[in-house]
Amino acid sequence: MSQSIQAIIAERRSIKKFNGRSVSQSDIVEILDVASWAPNHGNREPWRFIVAAENGLDAIRNTMKECTIPNWGQLPEEEIEKKTAGFKLPGAFVFVVVPEDVRQKERLEDFSAASALIQNAQLLAWGKGIGTCWKTPAWMELPKFRQALDVKPGERILAMLQFGYYDELPKAKARTPIEQKITYFG
Ligand SMILES: Cc1cc2nc3c(=O)[nH]c(=O)nc-3n(C[C@H](O)[C@H](O)[C@H](O)COP(=O)(O)O)c2cc1C
C-alpha cells in the first residue's frame, strides 16, 4: 500500500458502478484478515462473514434473484434483467454478520466494532485498487434470504459489502466543514 493513510481515507469513494471484473477470493480473505484488527470490546470479535466470490458469485446472484423477486419465474426475461442489473457487476460480495447481544451496551459495542472492521476493509480494498460499497438493502432482512445464507436467530446482517473493479471514480459529495460539527468544551 503506497498511498498514505490520510489519502486513502479521504480519497476512498463508495463505488456504485463496477465494471464486472471478478475479485479473487484470496484478495477478499486477505482484506478481511487485516481488517479484523479493528478495535472490539472484550475481544469478542463480534463478526463472521459469508463470502461469495469466484465460484460463489453465480450462486449468490441466483439467491438474490430468487429472494428479492418473489414471482421471478413468471416475469419476462427483460424485466428480470432490469431488476437484477445491480447484482451482476460487483466482483465479490461479503455479508457481515453480527451477534445481537441481548444486553444493549454489548450490542451497541459489537455493531460499532463490526462497523470499524467494515471501514478497515473498505480502506484496505481501496489501497489495492478495489472499490467497495456498503449496502443495506431492505431485502437483507427477509427470512427467506437470511435462511438461504444460514443466518441464525440472534444474528443480524450488518452489511452487504460489495467489492469490485471500476472504470470511473465518482465525485465526492462535499463534507460539512468539521468546525461546524465541533463544540469546544470548557
Ligand atoms: C451503514 C451504511 C449503509 C449504506 N447503505 C447503502 C445502500 O444501501 N445503498 C447505497 O447505495 N449506499 C449505501 N451506503 C454508502 C453511502 O451511500 C456512501 O458512503 C455515502 O454516499 C458517502 O459516499 P462515500 O462513501 O463515497 O464517501 C451505506 C453506507 C453506510 C455507512
UniProtKB/TrEMBL annotation:
Its EC number is 1.-.-.-. It comes from the Bacteria. FMN binds at R12, R13, S14, H41, W134, K135, T136. Its cofactor is FMN. It holds the Pfam family Nitroreductase. Residues 9-165 form the Nitroreductase domain. Keywords: Flavoprotein, FMN, NAD, NADP, Oxidoreductase. Binds 1 FMN per subunit. GO terms for molecular function: oxidoreductase activity. Belongs to the nitroreductase family. This is Putative NAD(P)H nitroreductase. It comes from Domibacillus epiphyticus.
